Amino acid sequence: MQNYNETEAEILQTILDNDLGLDDEEIVMLIKDSLSKRAKKEKEDYSFGAKAADKIAKFAGSWTFIIIFIFCLVTWMIINTKLKNKAFDPYPFILLNLVLSCVAAIQAPLIMMSQNRQEEKDRQRAQEDYIVNLKTEIIIRDIHKHLEQIEKKLDNQKNLD
């Protein structure tokens, strides 16, 4: 198996030979360490708050949450309707309205934080796909060049025979 530095040199040489019109930044991205190593490192970089926001947003967008939430709302209304004079939140359920507003005020920023992180992940994935596509194009061009050389050698061999 080839040495990592030899692989870097081959990629760079292929880029220079084929004049792919790449920026310096793109060339550096192609030669950098593997994408899988970077992806593992990035997963570990999230703070406790970021991980918690992702989990809360995931749960808040589930059917489990919706069913539990509807059950709690209906239970709250039934209890306060049945108790009439002893109700802790009589109709029109002002306390329930306050609780729902607080839940929404907390839940909305958490969901937005999670969406922003997801958007960043999507951008990173698109960048990684671009790098993979560039590397693949370089490899395909290199294989094509080698096939042409083999074809020429075979033609020369046939002409000699």
TrEMBL record:
Pfam families with a match to the protein in the record: DUF1003
Transmembrane segments: 59-79, 91-113
Keyword entries, A-Z: Membrane, Transmembrane, Transmembrane helix
Top-level lineage group: Bacteria
InterPro entries referenced in this protein's UniProt entry, alphabetically: DUF1003 (IPR010406)
Protein name stated in the entry: DUF1003 domain-containing protein
